[in-house]
């Protein structure tokens, strides 16, 4: 085997014992999970916003951003449930670039997985303990999920992972809502098959154990646009796309037919300033068709303190993304209030 084994990392149980979640943290997380399930099942008609930086890069600026969300969340709580994005793992198309806080808790230093595991657990726990938000992360590595499994309220499975068997089977064993993105090439049938697999019970190998999952009835679709064979981005948030997904869900017989729409990535062509316009069009589609409205449960928005993005450097601008460009705070705040007004 052509790799070096540096050190044996602590197993999730050891990290949880060393950095335990308080009773308050667990209660806040469970409250968010219940609200999400109520919305996805149609028992709560509020709109979900999974919102935050493309990547959680620095603990201080991420928490600053989430504190800002807290004040806005209180003002729109009757219409919107806000779930902050704290994405600590980043997929890289070519394998190059910043892979997230798990790999590099300090983006300007070398990778350190042990420090990264501790850093992401501390960040997620601080966010819940200090703001009361249950938060979201991406399950890029199914085997690593257990490091955060007791404190996450929502999981997304990315466009590059949604066809992977281990992601699907692990999703079927989670007790929190899981969003399954359409793949980068845009084949909606792949996404629907992934959701169907996550809804079912399976026996499989997980972290050295033979396990049986119960099935996850709250696995659902995330539309994020797609890229064609020429590298050109195409959206899939238009009315016709949503009406088609309604039909696919009806034919599937799946429980809790739900969709969250990503307003950035290929849906915006990474033109992050288009996100408010895209959100408005989606809400218009919902208000036009009651079946679409029943299915579309919310949006996924990439937002941070400062507009745009920057390269990693010792002189980084505070609160500006070091991965994909994000909508800045002032525009984000206005966008949230506009969405609440139009719902």
Assign an overall shape.
globular
What is the CATH class designation?
Alpha Beta
**SSE order, one letter for each helix or strand:** HHEHEHEEHEHEEEEEHEHHHEH
Supply the CATH superfamily name: Aldolase class I
CATH overall fold name: TIM Barrel
- Give a short account of the largest sheet: 8 strands, parallel
Q: What is the distance, rounded to the nearest whole angstrom, between the alpha carbons of the first and last residues? A: 56 Å
Q: Proportion of β residues?
A: 15-25%
Supply the number of structural domains. Answer: 1
Helix content: 25-40%
User: What is the number of beta strands?
Assistant: 12
CATH architecture: Alpha-Beta Barrel
Q: What's the short story on this structure?
A:
This protein is α/β, with parallel strands linked by helices.
């Amino acid at each position: 085997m052509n790799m070096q084994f540096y050190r044996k990392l602590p197993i999730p149980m050891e990290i949880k014992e060393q950095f335990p979640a308080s009773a308050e943290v667990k209660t806040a997380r469970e409250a968010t999970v219940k609200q999400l399930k109520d919305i996805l099942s149609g028992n709560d008609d509020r709109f979900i916003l999974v919102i935050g930086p493309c990547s959680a890069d620095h603990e201080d600026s991420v928490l600053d951003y989430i504190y800002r969300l807290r004040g806005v969340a209180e003002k729109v709580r009757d219409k919107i449930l806000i779930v902050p994005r704290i994405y600590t793992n980043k997929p890289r198309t070519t394998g190059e670039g910043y892979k997230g806080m798990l790999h590099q808790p300090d983006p300007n230093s070398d990778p350190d997985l042990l420090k990264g595991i501790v850093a992401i657990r501390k960040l997620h726990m601080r966010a819940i303990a200090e703001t009361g938000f249950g938060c979201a992360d991406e399950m890029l590595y199914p085997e690593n999920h257990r490091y955060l499994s007791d404190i996450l309220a929502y999981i997304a499975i990315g466009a590059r992972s949604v066809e992977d068997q281990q992601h699907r089977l692990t999703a079927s064993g989670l007790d929190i809502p899981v969003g399954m993105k359409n793949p980068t090439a845009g084949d909606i049938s792949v996404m629907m098959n992934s959701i169907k697999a996550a809804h079912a019970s399976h026996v499989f190998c997980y972290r050295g154990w033979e396990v049986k999952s119960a099935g996850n009835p709250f696995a659902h679709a995330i539309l994020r646009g797609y890229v064609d064979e020429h590298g050109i981005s195409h959206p899939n948030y238009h009315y016709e796309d949503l009406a088609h997904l309604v039909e696919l869900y009806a034919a599937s017989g799946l429980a809790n037919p739900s969709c969250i729409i990503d307003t950035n990535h290929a849906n915006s062509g990474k033109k992050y300033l288009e996100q408010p316009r895209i959100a408005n069009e989606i809400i218009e589609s919902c208000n036009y068709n009651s079946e679409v409205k029943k299915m579309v449960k919310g949006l996924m928005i990439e937002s941070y303190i400062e507009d745009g993005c920057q390269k990693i450097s010792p002189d980084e601008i505070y609160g500006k993304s070091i991965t994909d460009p994000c909508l800045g705070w002032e525009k984000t705040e206005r966008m949230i209030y506009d969405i609440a007004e139009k719902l």
